[in-house]
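Researcher: Let's continue the batch. This sequence belongs to Site-specific recombinase XerD, and it's 387 residues. Same format as the previous ones, please.
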Amino acid sequence: MSASYKFVYNRKGKLNSENKALVQLRVYMNRKQKFFTTGEYLRESQWDDEKKKIVNHPNAIKKNKKLRDMISSLEDYEIRIMDEGKKFTFEHVEQFLSGDSDIGFIEWCRKNLEEKQSLKGSTYRAITGKLNVIERTGILTSFKDLTFENILKLDNILLQDKAPRTVFKYHSVLKTFVSTAIKMDLLAVQNNPYIKFQPKRVPDAKRRYLDETEVRKLQEKDFSTKRLREIRDVFLFSVYSGLSYADICDMKKSDLYIDHEGNKWIWRDRVKTDFEYKVPLLPQAAEIIERYADDGCLLPVKSNQKMNEYLKEIATICEIDKNLTFHMARHTFATTITLSNDVPISTVSRMMGHSSLRTTQIYAKIVDTKMLEDMNNLREKMKKSNK
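Model: Same format as before. Here are the structure tokens for Site-specific recombinase XerD:
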């Protein structure tokens, strides 16, 4: 490192009309120093000069992180410039802090993503995939490219071969990174392209599920091949437990336990959200686990692609006129298995590992809609029988 960084409070020894002074970043290199604003104005009691950090402030944690990120980002940028064989100067610092540096936006997004250690593998891969697609368009190469016109251009390109709902998810990812860049002073607030561009929100897709008759067809069908029997069993385990494909793949014997009354439970954290959930196993789910107890693994799980491929074959054999996919099992647990049988929505939410009750309420609305349809059908039958 050719530069050293340190925060300085009230360098000029003067307070403003609000009895506050500016915190500045002192950059020292080649026996010279320059001061750059952090944008933070504080009272004397809110600055610890020995530890160079903000104290006694309601947003101290957030603001201190902003200051740390400021230096961390600058150090990374300095390394990048030097790796390119260039001499790092005060002009580079000024350009970087003003958002005019030539640092790659997607490159920065990837680095920022890597630092989020709380992200689960599936989420990390999904975001990385979206960044790769955006990079291939060649539209957002640097922070300077974050304009309304370019975001609109990106939106039009993505819509050429992607569904509006998918494109909305791309914008959600970008908006998160843009917001982080603003907090780290890498992008001026007024340069946020999403102030003008508002992605079109697409209504939630209708969650498809199996009704009681369709579940019974799956359960009672005697498949001649081991391959289809195993896929059916894993699918039904999800139907009766509510576990997602990722959670079943990640499930270990240590996640199973028996309470003092002999009830079997699954107790673990969801792969997707890291949110804890506990599920008392229904007899059907417990029986499936027992069926494969001697096989060395909890359940014979195949790749998600293969699972969905074989499920379509199973649907045809069982005469289920639906595009059967593995995630329908989880939807079926929420609707047909639990909510339709008067299990309280709060209990269902806890068993499914939802981080918000609002997610579970979507299933409750589906059950209400189905109930209304059934009653309307009943009314029509009664009208015909009375004629």
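Researcher: Any comment?
Model: The mean pLDDT is 85.
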